[in-house]
Write a structure and sequence with these properties.
Elements (H helix, E strand, L loop, with lengths): L2 E6 L4 H16 L5 E9 L4 H8 L5 E7 L26 E7 L5 H9 L6 E5 L10 H8 L7
Parallel strand pairs: 1-2, 2-3, 3-4, 4-5
């Protein structure tokens, strides 16, 4: 039996890290069959990598991000997002909604490269920093022949 975990709330970074730890424990359990995760609102897109690393068996992820003004500023480096990922993910469906001023396209492309089985991708609200181009994102997507837009 496969389970769907759905959670809709505005999380603080520390809450997401605690949640990721619990997901990791669940994922490490031989009894776990969690393959779908629906979560929002996260304070920064970098936390998506944390959730994917904590739940490497996910086939479907829906995640929404919204920049928050309270609390300390988010630091991507302490989550290891600067390090390249070589592990492949079984993700087939990815939905990302972003409501923040700017989104780093390199981060999203690094996640997409780890998902060779991705067949469905929905990205909404992504605003690139001034001077950035969508070309890297588009070339990453063009390499995924079975992807539906």
């Amino acid at each position: 039996m496969k389970y769907l975990l759905c959670c809709v709330a505005i999380f603080r970074e520390s809450d997401v890290l605690d949640f990721a730890g619990a997901l990791k424990q669940l994922s490490d359990s031989s009894c776990s069959s969690l393959v779908h995760l629906n979560i929002g609102l996260l304070p920064h897109i970098g936390l998506m990598k944390t959730l994917l690393n904590a739940s490497p068996r996910l086939t479907s992820l829906y995640v929404e991000f919204q920049t928050v003004m309270w609390g300390p500023q988010f630091n991507l480096d302490h989550l290891g997002t600067a390090e390249p990922d070589i592990s492949e993910l079984p993700l087939e469906k990815l939905t990302v909604k972003v409501t923040q001023l700017q989104t780093d396209p390199h981060f999203l492309t690094s996640v997409l490269r780890r998902c060779p089985y991705l067949t469905s991708l929905h990205i909404a609200g992504m605003r690139l920093p001034t001077g950035s181009s969508q070309s890297q994102l588009l070339s990453t997507l063009s390499g995924k022949e079975s992807l539906s837009f």
